[in-house]
Design brief:
9 helices; 4-stranded parallel beta sheet; globular; 10% strand; Rossmann fold; alpha/beta
Length: 200
């Protein structure tokens, strides 16, 4: 069975993107058709998560124990079906690296914001158009992408970004998590609703 691959991206791949990856994996662990990974646009290969980021991931159900940073390449990017950057700068860098990914690339909070106006029935209806789980999820991603023209751009310059907490205060780590976790939960809900449409 071909898996649907979700890639999260930040700068160093040690704070925001691994936390998002780990939360999504934890929330959707019962769906083997989904796989999750992360990478960084300026990552040091093999770097570990800072203590604060690892602790936050654990608190929200993630497992940071095996994470090692990796640098974002065209090969990694090209294998993804949904790409979630942690900021608009990451989204721009992703699309510059591989322009064909533009239709499946969002920021994490952008995907959450755009999908918030969709009902579960609308998500299921889009999913039902796919012949496989992977195709169903692709249909739902296309539905979310189609809302870009309907909902307009973010009203605040920071509305679609997750603040970078690296080498900053514990309070900044908390603020970053407050932005990241609800958005990751919404993404997980959308994906779960779509996959559930295929469950007996």
């Amino acid at each position: 069975m071909a898996k649907f691959s979700v890639l999260t991206v930040c700068t160093g791949n040690i704070c925001r993107s691994p936390m998002a990856e780990q939360i999504l994996r934890a929330r959707l662990a019962d769906f083997p058709a989904l796989e999750f990974s992360s990478a960084g646009t300026y990552a040091g290969e093999g770097d570990l998560m800072p203590e604060q980021a690892a602790a936050l991931s654990l608190r929200h159900g993630g497992d940071p124990s095996t994470h090692r940073a990796r640098y974002l390449t065209e090969t990694i990017l090209g294998g993804a079906d949904l790409v979630l950057g942690m900021s608009r700068n990451h989204r721009r860098e992703i699309v510059e690296l591989l322009p064909k990914m533009i239709s499946v690339t969002f920021t994490l909070r952008e995907f959450s914001r755009l999908s918030a106006g969709l009902t579960d029935d609308e998500i299921r209806r889009a999913a039902s158009m796919g012949l496989t789980v992977k195709a169903a999820l692709a249909e739902v991603v296309a539905l979310v992408a189609s809302r870009r023209g309907q909902t307009g751009v973010a009203t605040s310059s920071d509305e679609d970004d997750v603040v970078d907490p690296y080498r900053r205060s514990d309070e900044t780590y908390e603020r970053s998590a407050q932005q990241l976790v609800p958005a990751a939960e919404r993404v997980a809900h959308v994906l779960r609703t779509a996959v559930d449409a295929f469950r007996p």
